[in-house]
Design goal:
CATH class of the largest domain: Alpha Beta
Radius of gyration: 22 Å
CATH topology of the largest domain: Rossmann fold
Structural class: alpha/beta
Strand order of the largest sheet: 12-11-10-13-14-15
Number of helices: 15
Shape: globular
Helix content: 40-55%
Largest sheet: 6 strands, parallel
Order of helices and strands: HEEEEEHEHEHHEHEHEHEHEHEHEHEHHH
CATH superfamily of the largest domain: Glycogen Phosphorylase B
Number of strands: 15
């Protein structure tokens, strides 16, 4: 969506991508590959080694390989006016900084997540309180990157606050919150299209049945066990519901095995649907679950934008901006991460009160328009153009 917005504004974009897909843990390519999407938009894919765990030395190695590949392959290309880096870039940001210095380009940081804060989750319990000290070199590296920034966009209000502390030299007009967003009209049109559905979605609804969905990368940051525990509690109590889990990731096999072992017939694993299939799945559900483990630094989850675009009531474990928007608008509610009984209670409230469910879904539908990508990314384009003018004020082309 970043690229689409910049290209629509008349700019040329080269998007550098790792040859290893972080979400599916599959190789995209084994050799350097260029895809020309249009005259103004190219994708360049850099091969790297694989890794299995999101927080691992193997991932650091892959990101360093990616960084070196970008550096090696880009120096022969025409110089850019802007280098934009998705942050965190602890292990591949070196190439971007070197190229920014080489080309005297403006550096824009796109704050999508908070590392090294996220690494604290991987530490044993007693060590977590010392995370700041243990990861001090990584915090210092991030601080050096932000001191070089000519502009920052942040995926949430909370991420912008962190960015403000790291880059106090930037004026407000060069530091903006831009939500991930979603093309709302296109998304809702896709929900109305006919197409094949997983067989579990074709099971006739019971009277009053509420259908819930958890669609996500299935990794250690997600409260998956609690979600399944809540489903088991609801099943024991005879609650009229179904839960659909969709996605792929390190926890996929464990989820499959648990559902098989415990014979949770009201819980269905759908695999890894395509985006168009996922839109049709949302169209047949009522509630979206955004469950994250305690200590997660996610504040505005991508799935949350999709849930609202689909007009689903939302139940989340997050504390922060997204939850504030949900509760203030009446579009959803929060449960305490790790508390299966609380999650089951939040879901049962919608099963027991369909007027409450209808009200929440209507509020979510309205909230979804706030996240429309066309509106969100217009701010990105303005920030990029301002940063270039500040970086090169004598350039007649701006």
């Amino acid at each position: 969506m970043l690229a689409e917005a910049l290209v629509a504004a008349g700019h040329r974009v080269t998007w550098w991508v790792s040859g290893f897909n972080h979400r599916t843990k599959q190789h995209r390519v084994q050799t350097p590959t260029t895809i020309d999407v249009s005259e103004r938009f190219s994708i360049r894919i850099v091969p790297t080694h694989a890794y299995e765990r999101n927080i691992s030395l193997a991932r650091i190695r892959a990101e360093r390989e990616y960084s070196n590949g970008v550096l090696r392959l880009s120096v022969s290309l025409p110089p850019p006016d802007v280098v934009m880096v998705s942050e965190p870039a602890l292990f591949y940001g070196g190439a971007a900084l070197a190229l920014q210095r080489h080309w005297r380009a403006a550096l824009i940081l796109d704050t999508l997540d908070l590392w090294p804060e996220m690494f604290h989750i991987a530490l044993p319990g007693l060590l977590q309180r010392f995370g700041r000290l243990i990861f001090a070199p990584l915090y210092a590296r991030r601080a050096r990157t932000f001191r070089r920034a000519d502009g920052v966009i942040a995926a949430s209000r909370d991420y912008r606050a962190v960015s403000r502390r790291l880059a106090p030299h930037l004026p407000d007009h060069l530091m903006q919150t831009v939500y991930f967003g979603v093309h709302v009209d296109e998304f809702r049109a896709a929900m109305r299209l006919e197409g094949p559905l997983p067989s579990a979605l074709c099971i006739p609804r019971e009277p009053g049945e509420v259908r819930c969905v958890f669609a996500s990368t299935l990794g250690s940051n997600y409260d998956v066990d609690t979600i399944i525990d809540a489903a088991a509690l609801m099943t024991e109590r005879g609650v009229s519901f179904r839960l659909y889990i969709a996605g792929t990731g390190p926890l996929e096999e464990a989820i499959r095995q648990r559902l098989k072992r415990e014979s949770l017939t009201r819980v269905h694993f759908l695999g890894n649907p395509t985006a168009s299939e996922m839109s049709r799945i949302y169209a047949r559900c009522d509630v979206g679950i955004a469950g994250y483990v305690a200590g997660s630094h996610v504040t505005m989850p991508i799935k949350g934008f999709h849930y609202c675009a689909a007009g689903l009531a939302v139940v989340t474990s997050l504390a922060g901006e997204y939850t504030d928007l949900l509760t203030e608008s009446g579009a959803g509610t929060r449960y305490q991460p790790g508390d299966a009984a609380a999650l089951a209670g939040a879901l049962e409230a919608y099963v027991n009160d369909h007027d409450l469910l209808r009200t929440a879904r209507a509020a979510s539908h309205v909230l979804g328009t706030k996240f429309d990508a066309h509106m969100q990314y217009a701010r990105l384009v303005q920030l990029v153009e301002r940063a270039v003018r500040v970086k090169h004020p004598t350039d007649s082309n701006g």
